Automatic annotation (TrEMBL):
EC number: 6.3.2.10
Keyword Cell cycle among record annotations: yes
Positions of the Mur ligase C-terminal domain: 318-444
Catalytic activity: D-alanyl-D-alanine + UDP-N-acetyl-alpha-D-muramoyl-L-alanyl-gamma-D-glutamyl-meso-2,6-diaminopimelate + ATP = UDP-N-acetyl-alpha-D-muramoyl-L-alanyl-gamma-D-glutamyl-meso-2,6-diaminopimeloyl-D-alanyl-D-alanine + ADP + phosphate + H(+)
Pathway participation: Cell wall biogenesis; peptidoglycan biosynthesis
Binding site for ATP: 109-115
Function according to Swiss-Prot or TrEMBL: Involved in cell wall formation. Catalyzes the final step in the synthesis of UDP-N-acetylmuramoyl-pentapeptide, the precursor of murein.
Protein name, as recorded: UDP-N-acetylmuramoyl-tripeptide--D-alanyl-D-alanine ligase
Enzyme class, UniProt record, top EC level: ligase
Gene field: murF
Family: Belongs to the MurCDEF family. MurF subfamily.
Length: 459
């Protein structure tokens, strides 16, 4: 973040000052919404959540080095008081961008956003100062916090943009107008909030390309008809990527090694180069091509892009995170979140990784699936059986039991166990997993299976 005085910040966000002794005190570090993450010289953004109210931690944040608190009411320590803290953060982010003017790359999609963001950041930062979304800070709070980490040296700002409902991307692109917009795919994540099917999801995701300027780039997945169909919704130049022969940025000669890592020939308008990814799963080809398309739009050549992709590693926890235990058990933690598309990709990646080894899937419910939820969970249960997992442990009632029933009714020989909760799943997995097994753990974040994966990995 570039240094700003409290006075400048107050003017930018329309705040009134309370208990501020020095309006010209400089804020030299980015804001944080978690008082435990405040650094000296920063600003603490006090927001009220479902489980905690940041205002209750204002004094502790200032004691920990915050210059002041951005708050919705006086808190007894130096504070900039606004009506809505989230809106104020957005205004502050826009104020900063107007001063430093980096190239903003926005990316969205139903699955793969975080991995693609991590890959693209690792390609770009080899060539210029790059700031990218931390973890999955992709909403109306996380995006401005990411923007406010940028400074005068930042050339590229890679912003993951999430959309839980229609209008979200319009709001986020209003804070940080992108010059490059990347749409990965249209799936069923959040379909219950957006409408009834993929066309409604596509309408929401397409808000990103509608925000692009005529001299910008809309990077569209040629392999997804809903995404490719967004070409008519943008004034920007179109660059197609994917495995389709019509894509300008594409993969040829795709293959997988015995560790489930993919290699391919990257083809771009500037030439060709070999890519060998360090991430598991054939679905990572699409994520890598998306990152390559963005880098191509920004002027990088095929060889430079391939070098960055080849050196890239997983950065975000809970996304096909592999832990090898001393007893030979491999735990694959993919429990950050789940949708039908990501569960299918994860199951296939783990089977490819396991080879002849025994496989155990620990699966919880996938949220936000609407009226089709039970059917989609049933399909996952069938896939577990069709892929010939040895053991399936489901967690919870309702849709999770639909997975169990579907796998149990198959003739594939999968041993099915149903746990009531995460503790029960951990107990079953601990008892059933043996040396050399490969364990896959995945569910929507609200299930809390990440704790199970971490416990298994540390066993």
């Amino acid at each position: 973040m570039i240094p700003m005085t409290l006075n400048e910040i107050a003017r930018a966000v329309g705040a009134s000052m309370h208990d501020v002794h020095d309006p010209e005190a400089p804020v030299t570090a980015p804001p944080a919404a978690d008082s435990r993450e405040v650094v000296p010289g920063g600003l603490f953004a006090a927001t009220a959540g479902a489980r905690a109210d940041g205002h209750d931690h204002a004094a502790g944040a200032v004691a920990g080095g915050a210059v002041a608190v951005l708050a919705s009411r006086p808190v007894g320590v130096p504070a900039l008081v606004v009506e809505d803290v989230r809106l104020a953060l957005g205004r502050l982010a826009g104020h900063l961008l107007a001063r430093i003017r980096p190239t903003v790359i926005g990316l969205t999609g139903s699955v793969g956003k975080t991995t693609t963001k991590d890959l693209l950041a690792q390609v770009l930062e080899r060539h210029a100062a790059t700031v990218a979304t931390d973890r999955s800070f992709n909403n109306e709070l996380g995006l401005p916090l990411t923007v406010l980490r940028a400074d005068a040296a930042t050339r590229y700002l890679v912003l993951e943009m999430g959309a839980g409902r229609k209008g979200d991307l319009t709001y986020l692109t209003g804070i940080a107008p992108p010059r490059v917009g990347l749409v990965l795919n249209v799936g069923t994540a959040h379909v219950a909030r957006m409408g009834t099917g993929p066309a409604d999801v596509a309408e929401a995701k397409g808000e990103l390309v509608e925000a692009l300027p005529p001299d910008g780039f809309a990077l569209l997945n040629a392999d997804d008809p809903y995404v490719a169909g967004m070409a008519g919704r943008t004034r920007a130049r179109i660059l197609l990527y994917g495995r389709s022969p019509r894509a300008q940025v594409r993969a040829e000669a795709v293959r997988m090694d015995d560790r489930a890592r993919t290699a391919f020939e990257l083809v771009t308008p500037s030439g060709r180069a070999p890519v060998r990814l360090g991430l598991i799963g054939e679905h990572q080809v699409g994520n890598a091509l998306a990152a390559a398309a963005a880098a191509t739009a920004l002027g990088l050549g095929a060889a430079e892009i391939a070098e960055g992709l080849n050196a890239a590693r997983r950065r975000s926890a809970g996304r096909l995170e592999i832990v090898e235990r001393p007893d030979g058990v491999t735990v694959v933690d993919d429990a950050y979140n789940a949708s039908p598309e990501s569960v299918r990709a994860g199951l296939r990646a783990v089977k490819a990784l396991a080879g002849p080894r025994r496989t155990v899937a620990v699966l919880g419910a996938m949220g936000q699936q609407g009226d089709a939820s039970r059917a989609r969970h049933t399909e996952v249960g069938r896939l577990v059986a069709d892929l010939r997992f040895d053991v399936l442990i489901t967690v919870g009632a309702g849709d999770a039991l639909a997975m169990a029933e579907a796998a149990r009714s198959s003739d594939r020989g999968v041993a099915v166990h149903a746990a009531e909760d995460v503790a029960g799943a951990l107990g079953l997995a601990t008892a059933l997993v043996g040396p050399g097994d490969v364990v896959f753990v995945k569910a929507s974040s609200e299930v809390g299976l990440g704790a199970c994966a971490r416990a298994l990995a540390g066993a």
